[in-house]
Write a structure and sequence with these properties.
Elements: E1 9-15, H1 18-28, H2 33-36, H3 38-42, H4 53-65, E2 70-80, E3 89-101, E4 104-113, E5 118-130
Antiparallel strand pairs: 1-3, 2-5, 3-4, 4-5
Length: 134
């Protein structure tokens, strides 16, 4: 049986800065100018730099980590719905929707930018949920 129960929910949030985006690009090698070059990005449909979508999923991962027990990702389906702009506060929630049998759970994952009342990422994860070992 998983440690988490249907209805358990956790939350995480962060503000994604230009420094965060620059560091992520340096670490991963993802140097797409839409993320790094203000002049270039200003001419695109976004009108300025945006954060890497995958960087924003890290906030979802933090919310998953705050569910009861040890939660280990098995899979994650994502839909990138709106851009995250530099300086946006991203708030993610992870809500356990279903026990799948054994130690597996299905979790609804959502990241929002509350200042614009926008969902930026939605999706669903499958994870293992086991007791936390000290």
């Amino acid at each position: 049986m998983p440690v988490t129960a249907v209805g358990d929910e956790s939350r995480a949030e962060t503000v994604l800065s230009a420094e965060d985006v620059d560091a992520f690009a340096e670490i991963t090698g993802d140097d797409n100018p839409i993320h790094l070059d203000e002049a270039y990005a200003g001419e695109t449909m976004f009108g300025g730099r945006i954060a890497h979508g995958v960087l924003s999923t890290g906030v979802i991962s933090a919310a998953m980590a705050d569910l009861p027990g040890d939660v280990i990702y098995l899979s994650q389906d994502l839909r990138f719905e709106n851009p995250v702009r530099l300086g946006d506060r991203v708030v993610a929630t992870a809500t356990v929707e279903e026990e799948l049998g054994g130690d597996r759970i299905r979790v609804e994952t959502v990241a929002r930018v509350p200042d614009r009342d926008e969902v930026v990422i939605s999706g669903e994860a499958t994870a293992l949920s086991t007791p936390h070992e000290d």
